[in-house]
Amino acid sequence: MNKLSIVVMLLLLVAGSATALPSYSGLRGLNHVVDARTPETGLLSIGLFSFMGISPDERTAELKSGTVEITDTEYSGTGYINLGYGVSDHFEIGTRVSYLLNQLKRDDVEDRLNTTGDWSGDDGFSEAGLFFKIAVNPDAENFWLSVMPWAQFSIYNGGDNNFVYNGDEWDGIWNTDEPMFQMRRPMMNSGDMSFGGDLLATREFDAFTLHGNFGYHYYKQNFTFTDRRFDASHFVTASQEVDIDVEDPVLRVAAGIEFPMNKTTLFAEVEWRKFLDREFEEGDGERFDDCIQIMPGARFAFDSGLAMDITGSYCLSSFDPEYNDLGHRYFQQGIQQTDEERARYAPFPGGYAPKYGAGINLMYSVNVLPNPSILSGTVTDAATGEVITASVSFPGSDVVGVNTDAGSGMYSVQLDKDTYSILVAADGYVSATETIEIPSGENITKNFALQSVDGTVTGTVTEAVTGEALEALVVVSTNAQGSTDRSGAYSIECTAGTRTFTASAAGYANQSRTVEVIAGESVVQDFQLSIQLNFENVYFDTGRHNLRPDAKIILDRVAEMLVSNPGVSVMITGNTDSDGTPEYNQELAENRALAVRNYLISKGVSEESLSTVGYGEDRPAAPNTTDENKALNRRSEFTILSAPIQ
């Protein structure tokens, strides 16, 4: 499996979340990985990063007793003091000062420590850097691109020069007072000056966010020292003054994945550095021209603006000191080397990553510029969705409250970054309260739907003519309902506002009324229901207009309903089948309608409420093709022309 495949696999296996706090560069990001997004304008971030790497390295020591296999341990401490500042939505600047510590703890073998001592090392402030982020699409909703140019300068202030020296006696690394270039990080900086640029990409998903950094970096280091060749008795047999400049173009690929967990941030990073001019290949399949490491971590954010990281690191690449000794092993073998050949074996700028390690970071962020946000929204009735006039206030703060617009129900207020309590109140409604965290420089929409305070509607449901109480059901447009008691009375509680009440009873026509329900008060609304009239048809024998006994039974019921409802006007129609001439059928139809009218009048129905019309054979109820159909066409029907207003 190649190293790029390892990077992809690791990114799929780990997840985390990050806030707008600084990375090692001072720019917004994780630790090694920089976020393509810029922080809010005016946000100042301060970071104190610390990391201790530990690398047990097996070595061969040539002691007085002979060759001995030992394990020395390197301790590489790193400290960064970072500042980051969001200049605008398009631009961010970061700076850092680096403090490095390199120490070698020698393995206690035979009497080795009696002549070499336990420790060798150096420490001090090493470099200062400037980093810039230029956002290409800062207004994107879930995908961002940025470019990050940067430069670093040496400010070394530790020991006598840029290299770590060994101790008191020759111990199999180099000779006394010679540089120990076989350490992973023997120097204190990356050179007098280094620079580069990265393309940053960030993609935000619902549950996680991905970051990618793709960069080209350039380093130039100078190494000045005396290389010496020793014989078996440890006498110097040859020496060579070395003064070379080593230029390193480096391809850097880094990626991070994050997953939000409230105030806790879990994250993981992968970084791969490919040294383009270090093509090491000795025929054994191993390469030492790159370095890949994974770095998981957790970030804990606090409301005060403080945050803390706990991080880890593990290097997946193998380290071989023979490829880091500036060609000393070949010089020891008697091979004369050119500066170009020695440069191939120079220590990596910035050092080789430690085998594993852990770190703790402390960060603080604060917005130093006023950058207010706009909070707006609407206030509506929760039941109807209609806009209402309400007041929006912010108890416990100096913010002046506002009222919603009477026509649109909208409100708008300018707020600084903070946490606010919102109180929304309106007459006749239950007040709403909510706590909301306002970020800096954003437009936030917050709508409120208020519940009306209940009002009471009472009344009676009676028969329209007699005034007798009815057993009825009263239903409200808000889905509230109630039934009448034996006296026809009802009482219903419902939310205040304009509501529609509908009363219904078996055998009676429904009646609806619009009621203005007043919060906390009682309103009276009575209903008078009229009988729901349903008249049957009257049928006749062939060629006749006199009433049959079955027709009189039907007309008796019709007369009873009309007498009970004196405000009802009825049109009586006469109809025939197709037998006979049209003139004959027209006259027969009119006589049938008059026969029905006269009978109803004889039963007490008002003459003024009855009118007649004859249609002859023009309006058949069924085709005149069979005797049964013709019987259906020999009829009189009733059409209600008017009824009392309900």
Tell me the structural class: mainly beta
Mean of the pLDDT scores? Answer: 86
The name of the CATH superfamily of the largest domain reads: monomeric porin ompg
Instruction: Return Rg in Å.
Output: 48 Å
The strand line-up of the biggest sheet is: 1-2-3-4-5-6-7-8-9-10-11-12
The helix content is 10-25%
Give an overview of the whole structure:
The chain is mainly beta and about 650 residues long. Residues about 5-20 have low confidence and may be disordered. It has helices spanning about 5-15, 110-115, 330, 340-345, 550-565, 580-600, 625-635; strands spanning about 45-65, 65-85, 90-105, 120-135, 145-155, 195-205, 210-230, 235-260, 265-275, 290-300, 305-315, 355-365, 375-380, 390-395, 400-405, 410-415, 420-425, 430-440, 445, 450, 455-465, 475, 480-485, 490-495, 495-505, 510-515, 520-525, 525-530, 540, 570-575, 610-615, 635-640. The longest helix is centred in the C-terminal third of the chain and has 21 residues, at about 580-600. Strand 30 (about 570-575), helix 6 (about 580-600) and strand 31 (about 610-615) form a beta-alpha-beta unit. The strands form six sheets. The protein has a twelve-stranded antiparallel beta barrel with strand order 1-2-3-4-5-6-7-8-9-10-11-12. Helix content is about 10%, strand content about 45%. The chain folds into four domains: about 5-365, Porin (Beta Barrel), CATH 2.40.160; about 375-450, Immunoglobulin-like, CATH 2.60.40.1120; about 455-530, Carboxypeptidase-like, regulatory domain (Immunoglobulin-like), CATH 2.60.40.1120; about 540-640, OmpA-like domain (60s Ribosomal Protein L30, Chain: A), CATH 3.30.1330.60.
